[in-house]
Amino acid sequence: MNSIKLFCPATVANICCGFDVLGLCLSTIGDEMIIHKTQEKGVRITKITGDDLPFETERNVAGVAALALLKEIKTDFGFDIEIHKKIKAGSGIGSSAASASGAVFGINELLGKPFSRKELVQFAMKGEALASGSEHADNVAPALLGGFTLVRGYNPLDVIRIESPSELYATVIHPQIELKTSEMRVVLKPEISLKSAISQWGNLGGLIAGLYTEDYDLIQRSLHDEIIEPLRSPFIPNFDLIKKAALENGALGCGISGSGPSIFTLNKGIETAKNVAFVMNELFYKTDIPFEIHVSKIDPQGIQIINQEN
Ligand code: HSE
Hints:
alpha+beta; Ribosomal Protein S5, domain 2; Alpha-Beta Plaits; 2 domains; seven-stranded mixed beta sheet; four-stranded antiparallel beta sheet; 11 strands; about 30% strand; globular; binds L-homoserine
């Protein structure tokens, strides 16, 4: 195989109570990437559409992730990467993760799959580090594995994939302002109180149990974040208004997607998810901030191959 075209999905990280450890994969929005095997060794970013991103391999998240993989495996050839962005940078739905994951997934396929999807997470994280200053895996893991993913530990990396309950749908509103993850990490406090920690790990355990048992009431009771949300939500226009309206209209829970500005809800059933989207639309329409809304099932697959050529 000499070239491969991929769909690289958007993701929601944190999911209220799982800061830096929990993520989920969306199915209705994602980038496309095309990766070609070349005679010339090394990695080149040859084409970028849809966003203004660096072409220098070492300054591009896809390039950095690809180089991390190629450090582990010697090849006599190289790779050209085309990136066609649909997920805007600084949107909070895993733009850098889609690029980093796509690069390592595509190269791995062209190499004959020496690594499993799970093993690719460690390389994709290097791209995330370039984008945000921290090697978090809560976007790259669901982009690569699909479903929900839990990072049980970072050292050593221990990622667990969790199947989504069948009736769970996400609604995500993306107000089109850019919030850089690196800047949204600076607003966080390095220490938390024992009281907050107890409530957060109670909710995280509850959410995981709710996902495994398809207990939507338990999922609803668990979707809270009293540590990160109060510090970041003031940077997101209309966050409180949207959250209140979403919960009043049937969402199981609502929170900041990743480091924002996107806001996500989880909903039981597509009708509720669409209804929440309608309400979000009504509210945001009155502002002068452009926005997009996505209603999506939780994608079980992660990155998908669109086609491949010899
Ligand atoms: N867990 C990361 C953060 C996700 O919230 O900073 C960034 O998309």
